[in-house]
Amino acid sequence: MLELIFFSLLNGIVTGLLLFMLASGLTLIFSMMGVLNFAHASFYMLGAYFAYTVSMYLGFWVGLFVAPVLVGLMGAVVERYGLRYVHRWGHVAELIFTFGLAFLIEEIVQFVWGKDTKAYHEPEILQFPLFTFFGQNFPAYKAFMLLVSIAIFVVLLLILTRSRIGLIIQAAIHKPNMTAMLGHNVPLVFMGVFGVGCALAGLAGVIAGPALGTFPGMAVVLGSIVFVIVVIGGLGSLTGAFVASLLIGLLQTFAIALDYSVNDFLHLFNISFDADGALRDLWTLSLPQIAPILPYLLLILILIFRPTGLFGNRET
Amino acid sequence: MSEITKSAVSELSRPLRKTLMPWIGFVILLLALPNIFSSNVGLYTMNLMGIFIIFALSYNMLLGQGGMLSFGHAVYFGLGGFMSVHFMNYIEDGLFVFPMYLVPIFGGIIGLVFAIIIGSFSTRRAGTVFAMISLGVGELMAASSLIFVAFFGGEEGVSGDRTTGPELAGIDFGKDIHIYYLIAAWVFVTVALMYLFSRTPAGRMANAVRDNAERAEFIGYSQRKVRFVSFCASGFFAGIAGGLFALNFEIVTEENLNALTSGVVLLMAYIGGVGFFIGPIVGAVVFTLLQSILSNYTDIWQLYVGILFVLTVMYVPQGLTGIIMMHTAAWRMKRLGILILPYLRIGIPALAMLAGIAAFLETVHHMRTAVEGETLMSLMGIEYDSHGIVTWIVILVLTFVGGYLTRTQLPQLREAWETANKPPASTKGAAS
């Protein structure tokens, strides 16, 4: 039991921090432009594919640096020539635009790289078990993912709170007009934040690609979960996004690890049901089974009872 | 939006005969279509079109008329389909006697029931919160459908048999043409009902709440209740569409209520134009045509649909119907003729450019997917070498010369457009 909890905890934190890399960019973009970027996870996917292509010629480590930059540039272009143009049609159009973009990027990825899973692997020097605990190995690559995520988190925090750029960004979030009056180029700040947010998503893709698989559906798998995190944490709140990322990461790994079903629960009260009624699936429902729906359940509950999210202070 | 109001006001004052004309035309069209396209593929496409028309119109009750952007509308469609297919099986088992052609009603009812449950908390807000709840509910349902195997049938779905119901005048829906007429009848009834709904005070208030929820509250309407009514009606019609899907395909799977179907319906409604009642109809027809015809010719038809969708959102947010409707002013002034020549002049190079782009995409796709050494490919009946230098010259020339010529033609089109839409001097202002 102890080793189960230990490894679930570690895996949960790795997943959670990875999710935070996506969620932080998404929530920053949202607090600036008021747009939930549906295509955010698509940039994560692009990061993985770019890194795969680069790593074929120049190796993993070059890809680690080149791919996020490429994705960030693409993001900036999308903001400058797509989102800013669509802005004139209103918020709903912007939302639909990012939705369409997510669809289009998936098609483009399939067009360029094909539909099959790509053989994108971790570098060889990271292919060893870091330590063994109760007979279970903890791969070094996961530790690497953990390290990168923590480093990004710290750097992001420092930039946003300690640097001049961070100051301007925060000002532009809260009072864009006033910031523009003071002589800062707010549209450029927006473009920059969008680009950096996408680059972060791309970086997440680069390091998640070898672990979670590089395939055209990888954006869809993660995309809606990232939304859930941003909404649960509170739209526009970085702290909220951080807490919610860890929460969802842990929730998912623990739900998969702990194999309990409704039956077991009911046995505690000496209740048992026949095994072939129309509701039979309800009685055999187990935690690993409902693991994928737990985040969405949480999302709906949060939206009903606390529409601002855990740490947010605004609703839309 | 103001066009809708204007046309409605003038419609009321018009004689009844004129109001009924489009509907009579609609009936004639529905009856005539199977005689024109009598092949199996034609019937299949038209059946799908009918189902999607109802589905897309029900979606537009939310997005276009109510201002609610939903990312989980397939939930009601899918549940309606599952309920209907279960009822088809009950009828087959003789649990009760019920005519097969009314089965979609059950789909509608379960759509309504779920819309009442979900709408009771999701319609409190419009905008992003509503969109997020709809997304969450959609994902929740899609994930649950794989868990509750007894009702949803797991991966393989639930199948039924539509021919087992009591016969009606010798029709047992064994043939595709029977199901076509059934779907056509349902399409007519539901389209009429949805049109009438948009003309009721409830439908009108939905528009008001969409445009300015605060003002609607000030004249005494609860925005939440107004949205709730639209939401329930929309769920009901989506359920009917799902029921027809079950009758037509005799199988309903998890795919019918997942995010992909929700995305498709948004795509159809938006490409068609959400600001007009007939927009989603146009969208459904165009999308089904793209899906069933384009997919015969190319593997990457979804890429084209994606490009079309993004371009629509960016440059023509009023949709295809919006483009058509832009010409009504010129048409009323009988000046549409002025535009024909400019359109031809810009259309031919634009077509050449599109052909060049499409040929580029197809050739690249062929080079990537074809068997090693296989370089001969055919596109629209033209066979050529995909690696040949001539091919690439042709593609580049088509794309860039076409694009350049299209650009040079833009000013003359703009000029012609202004001439065609210039209000006549005598009735200045009235026609604009």
TrEMBL record, chain A:
The keyword Membrane applies. It is found in: Cell membrane. One of its GO terms (molecular function) is transmembrane transporter activity. It holds the Pfam family BPD_transp_2. The keyword Heme does not apply. Its main location: membrane. It is a multi-pass membrane protein. The chain crosses the membrane at residues 6-28, 58-78, 90-113, 140-161, 182-208, 214-235, 242-262, 282-305. GO terms for biological process: amino acid transport. CDD domains: TM_PBP1_LivH_like. InterPro entries: ABC_transp_permease, BCAA_transport_permease. One of its GO terms (cellular component) is plasma membrane. Keywords: Amino-acid transport, Cell membrane, Membrane, Transmembrane, Transmembrane helix, Transport. Coiled coil: none annotated. Belongs to the binding-protein-dependent transport system permease family. LivHM subfamily. This is Branched-chain amino acid ABC transporter permease. The lineage of its organism: Bacteria, Pseudomonadati, Pseudomonadota, Alphaproteobacteria, Sneathiellales.
TrEMBL record, chain B:
Its main location: membrane. The chain crosses the membrane at residues 20-37, 43-62, 74-91, 97-117, 129-152, 178-197, 228-247, 267-290, 302-326, 346-365, 386-405. It is found in: Cell membrane. InterPro entries: ABC_transp_permease (IPR001851), LivM-like (IPR043428). One of its GO terms (cellular component) is plasma membrane. One of its GO terms (molecular function) is branched-chain amino acid transmembrane transporter activity. Keywords: Cell membrane, Membrane, Transmembrane, Transmembrane helix. It is a multi-pass membrane protein. PANTHER family: ABC TRANSPORTER ATP-BINDING PROTEIN, HIGH-AFFINITY BRANCHED-CHAIN AMINO ACID TRANSPORT SYSTEM PERMEASE. This is Branched-chain amino acid ABC transporter permease.
